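User: Some background: our group keeps a shared notebook of sequences we're curious about, and every so often someone picks one and asks for a predicted structure to add to the entry. Today it's my turn. The entry only has the sequence so far, pasted here. Could you supply the structure so I can complete it?
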Amino acid sequence: MKAKNRRVTDEQTSRPLTVVGVSGSPTRPSRTTALVQHVTDVFAGELEGEAVLIELAPLLGELGAGPYRTDLGADAVRALEAVERADVLVVGSPAYRATYTGLFKLFFDHVGQYALVDKPIVLTATGGSDRHALLVEHQMRPLFGFFQSLTLPLGIFANEGDFTDYRVDSPELEARIQQSLSRTMPLLSAHLRLDPRFAPAAAAPSSFARPDWA
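Assistant: Of course. Here's the predicted structure to add to the notebook entry:
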C-alpha cells in the first residue's frame, strides 16, 4: 500500500506513516494473523499509510537463540526495529492458558524498554469462544502499560465463528473493527498530527454548560 498521508516531523521533513501489525500466533495459517492483517490494513487505509505485517511464527528459532538481542538472527532484529519505528502498532495473540502466547511475550521481551513510549497500539486477540475476551484487558493492556504505550480505547476480540478459511468473515467483527477505528481516529489525529479532517468534532454544550458557552 502506497503512503499518501505523511506525518510532519518538523517544518522541513516528512516521512511515510507506517502501521505495523504483529501476530503472536505460533502457527501458520492462523486466525490471529488474519485478524491482525485485516485490522492493520483497515487502519493503514484510513490513515493513508503503509501497512506492514510481522508474523512471529517463522521467527521462533531466531528469537530463542539466546537471552540477549545481540544473540538474535537478522530477521528477528529487523522485525524488532520495524516495531520500534512504527507510527501505529496493531498487536494480536491467540488466547493460550488465559494469556498471550509465550512467543508473543518473548518477542516483546527484546523490544527496547523505552522504544514504545507514547506509541499508539491497537490491541487484538482471538480465542475459541468469547470466554477469552478479557485477555485484551487483563493481560495485553498491562503489558503495554509497562512500555508506557498509548493503548487505544477499544480492543478487538474475535472467536472462531468470526472466520471462514482463516479469513475475517463476520459482519459483527467488521462492525467492532469500524467502531474501534472511528473512536480512535480523533486520538490518532491529535497524536500524529494528521489531516484536519480526522480531528474530533467540537463537543456539544450540556445542560451544565456555562451560559456563555460557545
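Suggested note for the entry: The chain is about 35% helix and 20% strand. Helices lie at 31-47, 60-63, 74-85, 102-109, 135-146, 171-192.
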